[in-house]
Amino acid sequence: MAAIASAVALCVAGALLAAWPGASIAAATLLRVYFNNERLATKPDDCAIVFELRREVPKTEAVAAAALRQLFAGPSAAERAAGYRSPFSSATAGLLKRVFIEHGTAYVDLNDPRPLLPGATSSCGAAEFNIQIERTLRQFTTVRRVILAIDGEPRRFYEWMGQSCDLTNDQCDPAPFRRRRP
What we know:
There is one protein chain. With 182 residues, the protein is an alpha+beta fold. The termini are far apart. The model is unreliable at 1-19 (pLDDT under 50). The longest helix is centred in the N-terminal third of the chain and has 17 residues, at 2-18. The protein has one domain (2-179). It contains six helices and seven strands. The relative contact order is 0.13. It has helices spanning 2-18, 63-72, 77-81, 123-138, 154-160, 175-179, and strands spanning 23-25, 28-37, 51-58, 84-85, 96-102, 105-110, 145-150.
């Protein structure tokens, strides 16, 4: 009877952990990534609608970096066949240079994506690019906003995207990226 109670307790604990972003079970961490899917979207042409997919990775405490690496690898072949799409693919799997979180802001430093993602600056491409990163990182309660940079320079990223440096991106201030060198 005690063995059955222990087994039930483990199953319940596993189910509870699976419900939480970045939860760890044994030697794995469960994460979420978000991709567009025109088959699931009520407005198939709305590039800012994303849907959750779960990914299991080796156990890690660096859940934000692990989630972004999964996102930047793009949808799997089976996920693409199910209608998921993304500007990210195996060609962009190495896009993440580093990510760190300070005071509710996720600072994401990218290796230069411009040669790999020429379509990312179109209106739909930019919407997909930004919402997929934003939603993937905001699964974590410590993240309230996201600031991106190319090689430590936010201005380079936001100019590439055709966006202004304003309060939403801290006026493209590179200081946080300089304080935290890899």
